[in-house]
Amino acid sequence: MSAATVRRVVVMFLGLTIVAAGMTLVFLSMRAVMDIGGTCASGGPYAITTPCPEGAAALLPLGLIVGLIGLWMYAVTSSKLPGPRLTLLTWSALFLSLGWNFWQYGLNPPMAATGVVWGWIICGVVFVAMGALPLFGLFNRDVAKALFWADAPSDNPVDPYPHGVRAPLRQGPTPPVSSEDSLPDALERLAALHSSGAITDAEFAAAKRRILEGQ
Amino acid sequence: MTNSNATKAAMAIVQLIAILVGIGVGLWVFQLVTR
Question: I need a labelling partner for B25 at 20 to 30 A (CA). Which of A13, A108, A167, A180 fits?
Answer without folding.
Answer: A108
